[in-house]
Design a protein that fits this description.
Strand content: 15-25%
Distance between the termini: 86 Å
Structural class: alpha/beta
Number of strands: 26
Largest sheet: 8 strands, mixed
CATH topology of the largest domain: Metallo-beta-lactamase, Chain A
Radius of gyration: 29 Å
CATH class of the largest domain: Alpha Beta
CATH architecture of the largest domain: 4-Layer Sandwich
Strand order of the largest sheet: 7-6-5-3-2-1-20-21
CATH superfamily of the largest domain: Ribonuclease Z/Hydroxyacylglutathione hydrolase-like
Length: 555
Amino acid sequence: MNNQRKTSIKLMALGGVGEFGKNMYLVEVDGDIFVLDAGLMIPENEMLGIDIVIPDITYLIQNKERVQGIFLTHGHEDHIGALSYILNEIDVPVYGTRFTLELAKAKVKEQEFKGNPKFIEVNSDTKVECSSAKVSFFHTTHSIPDSVGICIHTPEGSIVYTGDFKFDQAAAKGYKTEIGKMAYIGDEGVLCLLSDSTEAEKPGYTLSESKVIKQVTDAFQRAQGRIIAASFASDIIRIQHIFDAAFESRRKVVIVGRFTQTAVDIALQQGYLHVAEETLVPITEISAHPDDELVILTTGTQGEPIEVLQKMAKQTHKQVNVKTGDTVLLAGTPLRGSEVFIAKTIDMLYRAGASVISGRGTFNTSSHGSQEELKFMINLMKPKFFIPVHGEYRMLKAHAKLALECGLTGDQIFIPEKGEVVELADEEIHPAGRIPAGNVLIDGSGVGDVGNIVLRDRKLLSQDGILLVVVTLNKKEKKISAGPEIISRGFVYVRESEELLVEATKRVRDIVERSISKDSFDWTGIKQDMRDELNQYLFEKTKRRPMILPIIMEV
């Protein structure tokens, strides 16, 4: 009879499944919690006024004494952007490669984190020993150097988290995949593989970066005037292509934007970016060089370059504006869902006199593996169980289908929801409850103080505006001392709607006079009567429902 105790293993996604960004996964081994990545998400269109979105970490706060550390795969904001908010609540070490940690330090400083986080540098040979498991790493290829996958070794087998990856046989130094180490991990025994699903719907292989550099260089040599190259601040490989193409075409590069400057400075200091000394010039010297010798490299807020290009096209940028003869190079893969925004921006750039090279299918090649590469990862790891992560539900579903093609069965594949606890026990993978999960909205310095009710109010205000109804009462004499006065913002143009507002004012006066003539009355009842009456009247006349705020004062 075998009395050997089985290891308890649970997996949870706090973000990164059913959505883009906000990547954060928990692996629980005999009660010890390992946090994999800590990313933010760019707010969706309906999140009016929100700056960024981070995962709900209620479960981590409730179990902070069990958290062994935060393990980072790479330095993109959708994997490190929530760090300072998490470290405000739980004091744990943060593990990452050298370049990843430098970007993480810059990010927490930018977010004005007041603590003293414990950053621990690792490389692909590092072994982190914990009481319940050992953690190791392997290099992967992505658009940023020092990207790694994470392997948590348990007595039942390894839990492997790929992070973002693709396979590029011509990858430069600092970007090469450790295929041999991956194969070794697979031979040792992988219990569960959590794998990147971003391009799971895309057949074939992702275009090699060696092809991209040729496309960028050709575009630079064809351009007649200035080149404005827009990229993501942390897409170091694309920034390297831009510097290389500038050197080949004998152009000078001027950096515009704090995010870009920070990323370039860190990459140069750490030796991950190689730039000829004469290629990089400060923005103060931009007028000293002819237009056909200049490349302007830019990104924007959260490293997103399109908003900056719009400012340049509108001639409202503080440093550089688009002019006739410029060539604008969109050198970054656009964010999902931003296609309409990008199309409008391109239109504005053409109106400003620029030529636009969007590079569709060429130098904005994805930094994520396509279907054949995803299947290669599955075949290398040979997992007993498989969980697709990183992507919207249709992508997770497409990745699950690829796993079936690789020989796994439906019982071995699990598509999780945010907050769902997945347990690996008794040779099975199955759901085992839920933990709190969702969106924490960051608006200015407020963390989580904007919820669904506030967003609903913002949406109402954006659709139909607001109507303030101000009236002053003399409660003792039971009469109106001043008003009613109706103030419209975002509802109707007052000068052209006098008749509407006069009738609305009359109705408010009738309500107030009717109420205060009674022996007893309360402010709440009067306010509700105002809302009900005005709502019905204004909808009949305008088919709009503005937010109505009655304000009653007493003298």
